[in-house]
Design a protein that fits this description.
- The chain is an alpha/beta fold and 198 residues long.
- The chain has a single domain (6-196), classed as Rossmann fold (3-Layer(aba) Sandwich), CATH 3.40.50.1380.
- It has 10 helices and 5 strands.
- It has a 5-stranded parallel sheet, sandwiched between helices.
Length: 198
């Protein structure tokens, strides 16, 4: 994998976020794309951020239901850097790759555990963009690192320092497996919740 140059950050759990993303931006010179509350938190911590809406030139829609579901984002995650036709299409579009994502999901599990949680509240906490980002990046883990758990920030930062802004094939595969496990468990929880209410 080449050196990480651009990252997309959109999280619900902001534990350790500003230190990790601050390292990416300030020490490695990574361009940071972000959305909503994550962008505000990073900006408040002094991290330079480009809003996804500015990057895609498409505003957030439907009360934030549509933010990252855009061809410029998903092409940046899914294009293979080793396929000339893919590289050519990206150049034709004037789009850049996204080399790393830091994404965790809306807290569906914790919302449904609240005694006063309504069905409507639960449904609104079903994340759509997050799993799409995780799955796209995990599929293309040969070229994209996918960080889905704040507990991994420490060892990822250490490896990036050691390898000059790159992650090994084994590390990217490990992170991809973890991302697919997370989306699988998330969907299983949602499915079980809906089944109970049939």
């Amino acid at each position: 994998m080449a050196k990480i140059r651009q990252a997309l950050v959109s999280v619900s759990d902001k534990s350790g976020l500003t230190d990790f993303v601050g390292f990416l931006a300030n020490e490695l010179g990574v361009t940071i794309l972000s959305t909503g509350g994550t962008a505000r938190a990073l900006t408040a911590a002094g991290v330079k951020v480009t809003e996804v809406a500015e990057y895609t030139r498409s505003p957030e829609l439907l009360d934030g239901r549509v933010k990252t579901l855009h061809p410029k984002i998903h092409a940046g995650l899914l294009y293979r850097r080793d396929v000339p036709a893919h590289v050519g299409q990206m150049k034709t579009m004037g789009w850049e790759g996204i080399d790393l994502i830091v994404v965790n999901l809306y807290p569906f599990e914790s919302v449904i555990q609240k005694e006063d949680a309504t069905f409507e509240e639960a449904v609104e906490n079903i994340d759509i963009g997050g799993p799409s980002l995780l799955r796209a990046s995990a599929k293309n883990h040969a070229h994209v690192a996918v960080v889905s758990d704040p507990a991994d920030y420490g060892w990822i930062e250490a490896e990036l320092r050691e390898k000059g802004g790159e992650l090994s094939d084994a590390s990217r595969r490990k992170l991809a497996q973890k991302a697919f496990a997370r989306t699988s468990a998330y969907d299983k929880t949602i499915s079980a919740y809906l089944l109970e209410r049939l």
